[in-house]
Structures are given as C-alpha cells and as structure tokens.
C-alpha cells in the first residue's frame, strides 16, 4: 500500500478574478529521422551478428537486463532477443536492471516489468528478480561495484536500454547501457553508492563502476536504442562489451538531436499538465522546464521559466512524484496522489531531495494557472507570455499565448487553431486540455 497525505482546501477568492491569457494551439516541428522498419528482424540481426554471443556454448544461461522506463517497442525487442537466443540453443531469462526502482524490492521490480508488459507469458522467458548482489571490487574513490547476483551467475548477459539524456546535467555518457550496467544492475545498493557523491558520482564514479563490471561480469552484448520525438525507434544498434561506452557516447549525440524541445527562450508561465517517472526520471525534463535545480549545477540558459505550475501526476508513475518540487504551484489532486514512500525512497537514493518537496498546493487547476499567471511579474495578467504542455515528453502540440507565439522562430511552430480562452468546468478542472486530447483520459 502506498503512503499518501490529505491537504486542505486553501482558497483565495481573488484568483477567480485573474484574467488569463488567450491561447493558440500550435504544432511544433521536430526531427523525426527514419524509424526502424522491422523491429523483430533488426533485433535478431543484432544478436546473430554479435561475436560474443556466437562464442557462448550451447545451452548457456543468458540474462537479459531490462530497466523500468517505458521504451518504444520494448516488449517486441525483448521477445525477439529471447526468441533468437532460443533458436541458438540458449536458455534466456529476464533480470530487472533498475537500481532501486520498484520500491527497492524484488517483488516491486518484477511488478514494474509486468506493468511494462514484460512477463514470462509475453516474452517467452522467466523473470528472475533479486536485490542480492555480488561485489566486483572498488573504484579509486572507494565505491564498491555491486552487481545483480542472478546476472553475475549467468553465462552471458545482454543489456537492452534506450540511450537518452539524463535528468540532471550534460555529460559525455548519460542514460544508456553504461548506466544500466553501473546502476541498474547495481541494484539498490549500487544505485545508492553512485548517487552518494551527487553530480560527481554521476559524471565520474558511474563510468568507473561500469568499467569494473565490464571487466568482471559475463556481459556479452549491449543493445542501444534511440527514439525520436514520436516515440519511434530510429536506431537499434549492437555493441560488444569493449564498445559499449563508445556506443553510448555516439548514440547520445543522436538521441539529443531527436529530443523534443520548446522553441522559446523565456516565458512568464509554463503549465505542465502531467509529470511522471515514465515521462522523465525527474517527472519533468529539465531541458524543457529550464530547471535542473541541483546545487552546484547551473540551470540551462534557456528556456527561462518564471513560474511553473503542475496540474497532476500520471497514473503510470504510481505516486512517485520526484520532480514535483521543481514546480511553484500544484493542485490538491496532485499532492494527494503522491505516494510519499515511493517518492522519498527515490529521493533518498538519488540524494536530490529538493525535487521531492511539495510546492504551494491550491484547490483546483484553475487556481494553479491563475496563481502562476498573476505572480509571474507580467504587468498585465492577460498579456503574460504563457505556454501550456501536456508533458515534457509530448511536445508535438502545445498552447501558447499570442505574446509568446510572436517570439517563436519561423518554421519551428505552426498555429493549428484560432486564439481561444482557457475553459474550465464548475470544479475548476481544465477542459482545454492537451492531455485529454492526446490520451483521452483524465
């Protein structure tokens, strides 16, 4: 059972009188590339062409590491890996490679995989989840290299992960195969040790832990995935163990070129309808909100967002509200959806506790939007440079005020409707909702 809290209705009648900016629905143009046309065939090809897989003796037990993120076509990809390994006479099984996610328990991590659609019934291989680890030695900083015991005991290990920017700051290797080896397969103990040193742990210790694991664990193949802004796989590449880190660096540059971004440099108000762990590791991508909010790490130069309002959490995040602290205002519904056990577990592991603080909690979505607008230092509320997005991941359609649309460079945005007023129901719930339009749920 999750651990939740109740919040009072703190009402401010004057917010009802705030004149909100009109909004214009806009389609943004993002780089899309060429999606992989046949996921199954390409995955099988990568496994077949692996020199290390070819060296495995028939009947080898092969662990397939899978993380906690929602990745496009992940069930098809893992199923294809399992099928190809079986064709070659091996015995594959799945291991959760997700650090401390899933509440830091084996049962929780198996449940996370099931929510992603990865079960023995769906992919054709059993799931072996454990929080037990082996130790492969220490880095120069004295950090122990922990590694999933089931994976360590296998004859081979195949890592499957998406390469993407991390949720904190830029560096040559961010989220991808290397991180899954060092942190994901390091389980809760390994994740805590990496995050213990803050930014230094992610930039320096993490690669060193991965090098130790690569030298000691039976890692056979890395499969790196890159998605475009439409959540389509545009790269599906294999990497032998000695090329995993170089592959991460190469594909990270590609991944960043596909990331959806807001083509704005400054806004008075940004309203994010939903945040969640499946959207970003910190609920909302810092490169979209402009808020890294890590002591010692500069926020991005752009966009500069004066006031940020968050309307709710996704159902998929299951109450993990890490990142909610980056908002200035949120709703009572969002605050009461927070599972404090899951959120605090994530925050304590990552050591980035500021992101889990609760912002000002107001009764309704209209209250949050009105408060953000009227505190944004815009001289006239209705003239505020205003932007509303569904999530920081889904940026194909956004809504902007006329004042902000004028600042978007030519060719980067296309208005798809006339200016309109934001509409709300009698409970102050937003009806002019991008989230509803995109996902037909509320």
UniProtKB/TrEMBL annotation:
One of its GO terms (molecular function) is lactate racemase activity. Residues 75-195 form the LarA-like N-terminal domain. It comes from the Bacteria. This is LarA-like N-terminal domain-containing protein.
